[in-house]
Structures are given as C-alpha cells and as structure tokens.
Design a protein that fits this description.
Length: 144
C-alpha cells in the first residue's frame, strides 16, 4: 500500500542543513552521499546544495561553510529546515567544546524548533578519533 501511495502522489522533499566547524568533513560527507564515492574538496566559502534521493524521499542538503567568520550567517539558512546534520571532527579534541557551543546555539534557535538533529562524529578512523559519545534526548533534558 505504501509503495502504491508513493507512486500515486510522488516523492516527499525535505530540507536538511549540514553544519559544523570548518574542516569537520561536511562537504566530503555530502558528496559521498550524493555520488557514493570520495571526492577531493576545498574549504567551503558559502554553501553547496545537492539533492540526495533515498527511498522516494528527496533530501535537499545544504552544506554551509564552517569558518568562524561565516557562522553568524548560518541562521539565514534555518528557516524551512526540517533536519540538521551537525558534523564534528572527532579527532580534533581541542575544538570539541567549540563545536558543542555552536550546536547549542543552533538547537536553541526558535527557527530550528521541531527540526530533527543528527550529530555525526566524523573522522573516527584517525588517531584520537574515537571517544565515547553520550546521547541525550534534548527535548526532555532541554540542554546539550
């Protein structure tokens, strides 16, 4: 029945933001999802937008640069976003707290209320890349 419904009424679209500090690996992840292979990237100044289709859902993924000077502009991308993929370079222990603060700022913005948030711990294959993550239901605990 679900397949018939999807065929009759078309696919669903979702707007997803991909944010994180600079050099976390956002663009690499985006093109790995889109193309199924790794590509060479350069730091994103501005944004990349790609559509990734999965199970009849079109995900319009907005990969926005993470340099400190660009971060104040992130809020302009919040409106209409149904999900957030927040990418963290898990091998960069020196910036984990900075990443946590940025994620908290995003998650508490009223434009992001109701958005599904996924924290992607990237680069776990690198030295110091593995650490224990704690999961939390932020709506219940109301904190990050």
């Amino acid at each position: 029945m679900g397949k018939l419904f999807s065929k009759l009424f078309g696919s669903k679209e979702m707007r997803i933001l991909m944010l994180g500090l600079d050099a976390a690996g956002k663009t690499t992840i985006l093109y790995r999802l889109k193309l199924g292979s790794s590509v060479s990237t350069i730091p994103t100044v501005g944004f990349n937008v790609e559509t990734v289709t999965y199970k009849n859902v079109r995900f319009n993924v907005w990969d926005v640069g993470g340099q400190e000077k660009i971060r104040p502009l992130w809020r302009h991308y919040f409106t209409g976003s149904q999900g957030l993929i927040f990418v963290v370079d898990s091998s960069d222990r020196d910036r984990i707290e900075e990443a946590r603060q940025e994620l908290h700022r995003i998650a508490t913005d009223r434009e992001m209320q109701g958005a599904v948030i996924l924290v992607f711990a990237n680069k776990q294959d690198l030295p110091n890349g593995k650490f224990e993550l704690q999961s939390a239901n932020c709506q219940e605990e109301n904190r990050l």
